[in-house]
Amino acid sequence: MPGRILKIRNYSGKDFDEYLKLHVESAQLAPAGRFVSAQNLIDDLGRPNFKPQTDLWVADLNGKLVGSLSINREPEIGRALLDGCVHPLHRRTGIATKLFSAALQHIRTIGIKSAQINIQESNTAAKYLMDKIGFTFIRYLLKCSCPLTASDCRQSVRATSPVAN
Q: Which residues pair with 84 in a beta bridge?
């Protein structure tokens, strides 16, 4: 790819506008049901025990952020939860593989023993990638909801849950 320089690096505060643009454009081009706003991303970057300068990796293509991968550390149980995004116009170009490679290498150096990522069941490309880089399937998760009008949410869930006791 002549003229295309891809750098996988840690996030810095000056990246925020590009980081916001990455998430907004991704949500517009390939909606995944997530609400994206500047305030939402600011809150996410400022969550407890998260240090964007070491826990957030970005894919920088000639000064434009085209991907990101965050590491949510859970050192007390030796696990890291990963969450990532690649701009829809830059998918299937190896960016996600490079982001995961950098993040997993970093995770190993800080003593984390296990990494986990949650992906949508319908996201076959992500499933393929996770299998390719060595992740194994653990379990399916059920999507649950509780009507806020119910006087007792637990009773409402019990009444409709196929696995309730």
A: 69
Do the Cβ atoms of 98 and 60 come closer than 8 Å? Answer: no
Q: How far apart are the first and last CA of the chain?
A: 58
Full DSSP string of 65-85: EEEEEEEEEEGGGTEEEEEEE
Q: Cα–Cα distance between 142 and 139 in angstroms, integer?
A: 10
Q: What amino acid occupies position 35? A: F
**Token match 């916001």: residue?**
20
Scanning the structure block, which residue is given the tokens 């300068």? 53
The pTM score is: 0.77
List of domains in the chain: 6-140 (3.40.630.30)
pLDDT tens-digit profile of 75-134? Answer: 888 899 999 999 999 999 999 999 999 999 999 898 888 898 888 878 888 888 888 888
What radius of gyration do the chain's Cα atoms show?
A: 18
